[in-house]
Amino acid sequence: MRILVCLTDNRPEPWITALQEALPGAEIEQWRPGAMAADHAVVWMPPQALLDEQPQLQCVFNIGAGVDALMRLSISPQTRIVRLDDAGMSVQMAEYVCHALLRHFREFDVYEEEACNGRWVYRKPRERSQFPVGIMGLGVLGQRVARAVSQFEFPVLGWSRSPKRLEGVQSFAGESQFHEFLAASRILVNLLPLTDETRGILRRETLLHLRPGGYLIHVGRGAHLVEEDLVPLIDEGHLAGATLDVFREEPLRAGHPFWSHPKIVVTPHASARTLRRETVAQIASKIHALGRGEIPSGTVDRLRGY
Ligand SMILES: NC(=O)c1ccc[n+]([C@@H]2O[C@H](COP(=O)([O-])OP(=O)(O)OC[C@H]3O[C@@H](n4cnc5c(N)ncnc54)[C@H](OP(=O)(O)O)[C@@H]3O)[C@@H](O)[C@H]2O)c1
Questions:
Q1: Distance 189 CA to ligand 1 centre (A)
Q2: Is 90 exceeded by the pLDDT of residue 9?
Q3: Could you tell me the residue ranges of all domains in the chain?
Q4: How many CA atoms lie within 13 A of 213 on its CB side?
Q5: What separation in Å is there between the alpha carbon of 219 and the centre of ligand 1?
Q6: Is the CB of 193 inside a 6 Å radius of any atom of ligand 1?
């Protein structure tokens, strides 16, 4: 078996070593123009040239959960696109969302400011039932986040393409229930994949449906949010603030208004990082599944785009 590795923004050597340990019989090398014809490729944001040169690939394994960058490329219809499912990401995402949610709900940001000024001031407890948490996307990550948030006894709502039955989660599905879902949510967590249907879904018109004093936790993809619409909604008081991990352009440029806005928290696309050990183990087990003639989990439906 031959495997090519092509990882933009990642050093390939440790990945090649780890893959070699997990798949001892495989021939594994970094992709360069003119590389060997391979059975599989392990990629992150590869160039079109790789796909053009390797139309025989059985599988392209994406080392992230979102495949939007791959879906922009032209990939042979016989090549299967397989994304990462979980591999240690969902617990990180649950930590991130719960941190942002609790920081806002318990007003820890205000306490931090008071402490800086040496002030001992209590905040009035807030009513949890008044902070329903709406999660857009109830897939691998959204479901884990829903479970974590419900542990803190917030009302939890979820919106997905197809209806779900999840304990403690009120399920909304499809476009027809989108506004109803938003109107019932105060904290909005975005965990959708980026597709033609979801691009720009977080915009003035949709965010205005949230309960007053809404709060956005945006961890999907930058292009879900119409960035120009966010600051006016906060400054007008309709939204209380936002925690943003993903941006239209990354890294977020110096001087972007999000950096300095007092009600916006910015993190550098760090909510759920790819973990090499877990990822390599998952890719190896998917390759074994293929060997048994099975369809590996995380196979992307190209028509849906995720
Ligand atoms: N910030 C970060 O560090 C980071 C890290 C990892 C992932 N992510 C982002 O998180 C996304 C979700 O990951 P995942 O593993 O949870 O994906 P997933 O398992 O594929 O789940 C996607 C969810 O979104 C729903 N959905 C898709 N299109 C929809 C639409 N048009 N309307 C309503 N619901 C729709 C799906 O509905 P169905 O269940 O009905 O199919 C599903 O519940 C990734 O695509 C990626 O962009 C970000």
A1: 11
A2: no
A3: 2-87+274-291, 89-266
A4: 7
A5: 10
A6: yes
CB-based contact 184:132 (threshold 8 Å)? yes
Tokens of 133: 């948490």
| pLDDT, mean over the chain | 98
43 lines ligand 1 (CB under 6 A): no
Query: Ligand 1 in contact with 65 (CB < 6 A)?
Result: yes
Which class does domain 89-266 fall in?
A: alpha beta
- Tokens representing 251? 């890294």
pTM above 0.85, yes or no: yes
The CA 20 to ligand 1 mean position distance, Å, reads 30
CATH placement of domain 2-87+274-291 = 3.40.50.720
